[in-house]
Amino acid sequence: MTAAAPPSTDTERTLLLLDGHSLAYRAFFALPAENFSTVTGQTTNAVFGFTSMLINLLRDEQPTHVAVTFDVSRQTFRSERFADYKANRSTTPDLFRGQVDLIREVLDALHVPVLAVPGFEADDVIATLTVQAEAQGYRVLICSGDRDTFQLVSDHVTVLYPTRGVSELARIDPAEVDRRYGLTPEQYPDYAALRGDPSDNLPQIPGVGEKTAAKWVREFGSLGELVDRVDEVKGKAGDALRENLANVTLNRQLTELVRDIALERTPDELAVQQWDRDAVHRLFDELEFRVLRERLFATLSTAEPEADEGFQVRGGLVAPGEAAAWLDAHARDGSRVGLAFHGQLATWIGRDLDGIALATGDGSDGGGGEGGYFDLRGLTPEDEAAMGAWLADPDVPKAAHDVKGALHALRGRGWTLRGLTNDTALAAYLAHPGQRNFDLADLALRYLRRELRAEEPADGQLSLLGGEEEADAQLAGSQILQARAVADLAAALDAELDKLGGTRLLAELELPLLGVLA
């Protein structure tokens, strides 16, 4: 969480810049790796933490422009000037390897620009963009765990500095720099040079800590003035300073961020973009980020609406005695029929199968095709025979969702299901086995961008609906919409499996096995 952001006007442009490597490392060490691993064994704690922070920042700060910067390697102009620069850092942890590439994939799916320049560090790229953006009237937010970015702070530039893992951020503005160090942002590099930095292997002055370094800068105004008047510094600290002036001068060169790199993009070219919805779904499935995906779509409004529309279909409850006529009129033209089974899904014993909904046609006429709901509790003997014959007809192509339980229920009534060309839950698994949720409504959103809006009435709502007859009509409509969703989803998954080369696996192995295993 960040502290409250200052109010912004509708016309204000805000550029959010993130230090990719800095934040990824913080996430890696903040979140236990053993709690973030996919079924394939890929550790994802750094990816999860970074993505979570990014979502929070986009939500809380509402930037108009955004970019993430990365280091290219440890070989930079700083390591050329000082061979031991960051030489004390350990090798990259094995569990961290590959996670930066995954973070880049997340950013690519979210259409967040990534910048990295050989020979320079991520903070140098941030500094260059900050100078350009501030000159063009932007408000700039920098999220980095590197305190060297404090030198960029101004009335229009704020650093969001992680204080606890990746969950809490401190807002560093000029007043906060003064409160912490008694210095201006412009004086920060002088202070950092005197302090040294063990994390970067920048040498320290023996016996001189942060308080003394800050006091010297406040007293003399700048490092340059301090060097010119170094003989005025008394005591052991003064002796140590004079003995280490060369190191201090080198530190100052290395802590100054470069602000004039030639970049391939300008701030105006970093505008927030709409996401690649399909890429987000695929990648978050692979990373097993179900909850994070829900947060993404629930809290951010920069993407297109998740659902374009709902499902539409004609038809309703088929009256007793009319099953044969309805099936002959609407469900024997050779087109695939979507099925939805209604009953107690937890048990699926014969007596718990209460109804079957059918949806036919492809909806190309604008009406969504024809639908019918058969209340199995009111079927006549002729209806029973007609429905049983239709279900068993292998020449009528059918599709259903997670049909295994329904096969048990049908068998309990003496019926057999043949002609099944797609089980949408099974097809979705074959297309993307890494995803966790194969619910029909979720798949409809993902593949069709349509929402199943109709709900079945609860028993306690009958009086509010106008009686049992109206409740039955609402139930029929709800089930028909599910059958319509199944039919349309089956077509989408046919295309997906064909693209992935999984069509024969579904048709020749998985679907035949359903009848054996059910």
What is the CATH level 1 assignment of the largest domain? Alpha Beta
Return Rg in Å: 32 Å
Work out the number of β strands. 14
CATH superfamily of the largest domain: Ribonuclease H-like superfamily/Ribonuclease H
Strand content: 5-15%
End-to-end distance, in Å? 49 Å
Q: Uncertain regions: pLDDT < 50 for 5+ in a row?
A: 1-10, 363-367, 454-466
Side by side, the strands of the main sheet go: 3-2-1-4-5-6
Question: What is the global morphology?
Answer: elongated
Compute the number of structural domains: 2
Largest sheet: 6 strands, mixed
Number of helices in the DSSP assignment: 21
Q: Oligomeric form of this entry?
A: single chain
Structural class by helix and strand composition:
alpha/beta
CATH architecture of the largest domain: 2-Layer Sandwich
Overall mean pLDDT stands at: 86
CATH-assigned fold name of the largest domain: Nucleotidyltransferase, domain 5
Percent helix, as a range, is 40-55%
What is the gist of this entry?
This protein has 518 residues and is α/β, with parallel strands linked by helices. The chain is built from 21 helices and 14 strands.
Summarize the helices and strands and which ones pair or pack.
Elements: E1 14-19, H1 20-30, H2 45-61, E2 65-69, H3 77-81, H4 99-109, E3 114-115, H5 122-135, E4 139-143, E5 157-164, E6 168-172, H6 174-181, H7 188-195, H8 210-220, H9 223-228, H10 235-243, H11 245-255, H12 277-287, H13 290-299, E7 309-310, E8 314-317, H14 323-330, E9 337-343, E10 353-360, E11 370-375, H15 381-392, E12 398-400, H16 404-412, E13 420-423, H17 424-431, H18 440-448, E14 450-451, H19 462-465, H20 468-500, H21 503-517
